[in-house]
Design brief:
The complex is a heterodimer. Chain A is built from 8 helices and no strands. By secondary structure, chain A is mainly α. The chains are: A mainly alpha, B mainly alpha.
Chain lengths: 187, 183
Amino acid sequence: MLSAPNSAPTAGAIFMAFARIGVTSFGGGLIAYLQDAIVTQKKWMNEEEFLAALEIGQTLPGGNAVNVSIIAGRKLAGPVGAIAAASGLLLPGIVLLVVLGLLYQRFHHNPDIAAGLAGVAAAAVGLLLQVTLKIGAKQFLHLRDLAFVLVTFVLVAFFHTSLPVILFLVAPVAIALCRPPKKTTHE
Amino acid sequence: MSDLVRLLNVFCLLSLMAVGGGTAVLPQMQHEAVGENHWVTETQFATIYSLGQMAPGPNMSMVVLIGWQAAGVAGLLVTLVAFYLPSSFLAYGCSYAWDYFKDNPWREAVQRGMAPITIGLMLAGVHAVGKTACINPSHSLHHNLVTAGIGLAVTVILFAKHINPALLMLVGGIVGWFFLRGN
């Protein structure tokens, strides 16, 4: 058995807690929902453990919230806990997306629906732009970072450079420029 | 069948390349789903993306609709697993190994160096969906004024006030319906 504490929640309880977030988290901001549920309400993790999980989740590829739920679920109940947490987080939204997709298939030729959907799609672009500007605020003010933002943007948007090329050619340069200072020879 | 294999390939790779969250792979995803494999049209892609913003849970779950459009229910399931499983395995494994790397100075270098690239990729994502949904030469000037206006208004409002974005999506839909239904 894993060295879980006696009060470790069951997979069902984990699924339900994450599914509640999966149902209610309209409009994004999932990390805040996760923190509220895991740290504040259920007290399954303390603040520090949560921040460590968040740091891993943000460093690694993949959706941050999904990664955090995998890590939290593992801590609570091993592999089963990780599966319960991630599927709880994902399933409600996916069910709703399938319903929306069915409605879209059926009604997208209707001019009223098409007009409404055009408005929703435009609003989604505005949201993405705002999120990008907000989390990029620090990078836009730093000259070297700004250069990498612009190079990446122009290469991808206008020269259709593929993502692997960016990750294998541009990213190493950016990381090398941020490399840790050499340790002094004095120990 | 070959579509399922393609979906599996494409979304597994996207899953592992999604540094800084799923939004960073949006331009590449559009390229694969629209240009390379013709699973969805450009307009469908922009619409599917916006549905993802409206639904609760992780926004990038909208990928399942691309899989569905490409290859039915099997496509939906393959895409779901392909997009979330590889990165989840990585997170699972790394939460063991994390303590090793916690104090490694290169970790911060990777995070600092990747941050502007993630932002650049997200901006390219704005461009990828924006050129269909907001400023689109194949639509009338009236249509473009309305959609660009909605997009800009949402950006400005979110900077000025803390409003649930899902609510703004709905308002955007109503405004779009009001001004565009005659077109």
